[in-house]
Specification:
With 354 residues, this protein is α/β, with parallel strands linked by helices. It is built from 14 helices and 10 strands. The protein has 2 domains: 181 residues, 3-Layer(aba) Sandwich (Rossmann fold), CATH 3.40.50; 105 residues, Rossmann fold, CATH 3.40.50.
């Protein structure tokens, strides 16, 4: 039997690219249609005496959940952590959900482990919610609060528009929960920011990464979750062994692998982490690494090549702009490597884990 041909015809426009390009309109629809629902959920959580929050997710969705969790920790002071579904599905641990909020992030809402975990959390007394692209999915049916991501059917195996929608839904929930009216207002300009982010030229990244087989993606704070998503996409659609690290952690064991020519992508949105990220980029460059930076705002490292990005109306939104610019680049990189971004090896659109 002949194997699946993963090569991409040069003249074809992939579903991945088309869906990534639709993200600004998806975000506009999400803010208009589900924004009030998210605000009502945020107000409910703010008044419910919640002492801690857990997120439940897999894959790209878990990166979006981690982004939300970091915001809640760093900007809201609420203990927020990821709950491994195996705690419920394999260990059958007795959960205590009093004064707990549980937020699931999922595109399809189909995976049995997410459904089982959220069912158990709800039964234990937790306030449950799901950020999901299918409001009639099994996951949506077992939670108390459903947020429709309004992304429409996503046909590309590699998630793009739904991931961005999850980031924005998490940002909206965070802003409403902690009462950040400035961030709420800034989010209204996101569709415009994302349209501009689609226009930036990351061709230098395609040429520099075309023949690599390994790569570090470095972030810190909220940008670490974006680094994780970027590393996943390098693996999924390009076949590159990409690993995401915090700038605070890479100086430990991972630094030993960085030699002359080692490719590194550094994400440096505005915020308290930016200075340290830029210092690390400079250090890696001096060691001979092949470093590229994505820097929001007016700062940078003169000696280190940079990829353009569009600074958002609020620094907490810079990560969304960065991932929007990244998706078309990684799609182009896959094609430059002779691969079909819509048909990554060994993957399917819906993953059902136990």
């Amino acid at each position: 039997m002949a194997g699946i041909d993963h090569r991409q015809p040069a003249s074809a426009k992939s579903l991945m690219l088309a869906e990534a390009q639709s993200a600004p309109d998806v975000v506009a629809g999400l803010l208009a249609e589900s924004g009030p629902i998210i605000d009502a959920l945020a107000q409910h959580l703010a008044g419910a005496g919640v002492a801690a929050c857990v997120t439940v997710a897999r894959g790209s969705s878990d990166h979006a959940a981690s982004h939300f969790a970091y915001l809640m920790l760093a900007r809201g002071g609420l203990l927020t952590s990821s709950l491994p579904p195996s705690i419920v599905t394999l260990h059958h641990a007795p959960l205590r959900g009093d004064r707990l909020a549980a937020v699931a992030f999922s595109q399809s809402g189909q995976s049995p482990d997410l459904v089982q975990t959220m069912t158990a959390l709800g039964a234990s007394g937790a306030v449950t919610a799901a950020m999901v692209n299918d409001p009639a999915s099994p996951l949506a049916l077992v939670v108390s609060n459903v947020v429709d991501l309004c992304a429409g059917a996503e046909r590309s195996v590699a998630a793009t528009k739904s991931f961005i929608a999850q980031l924005v839904a998490g940002l909206r929930l965070h802003a409403g929960w902690v009462g950040d009216d400035v961030l709420q207002q800034a989010m209204l300009t996101l569709p415009q920011t994302l349209r501009a982010a689609l226009q930036v030229d990351w061709a230098d990244a395609v040429s520099s990464l075309r023949n690599v087989d390994r790569l570090y993606v470095i972030g810190r704070g909220a940008s670490l979750s974006i680094a994780g998503e970027i590393a996943l996409k390098f693996k999924e659609v390009c076949g590159i062994q990409a690993e995401a690290f915090s700038s605070a952690e890479v100086r430990h064991g991972p630094m030993a692998l960085v030699n002359t020519g080692y490719p590194v992508l550094v994400l440096a949105p505005r915020g308290v982490e930016q200075r340290g990220l830029l210092e690390l980029a400079s250090e890696l460059h001096d060691r001979g690494a092949k470093v590229q930076c994505v820097v929001a705002g007016d700062f940078g490292v003169p000696a280190v090549p940079s990829l353009p990005t569009v600074a958002a109306a609020h620094e907490a939104l810079d990560t969304v702009s960065m991932i929007q610019s990244f998706y078309p680049m990684v799609e182009a990189l896959a094609r430059a490597r002779g691969l079909d971004p819509d048909r990554p090896k060994h993957l399917s659109k819906v993953t059902r884990t136990q």
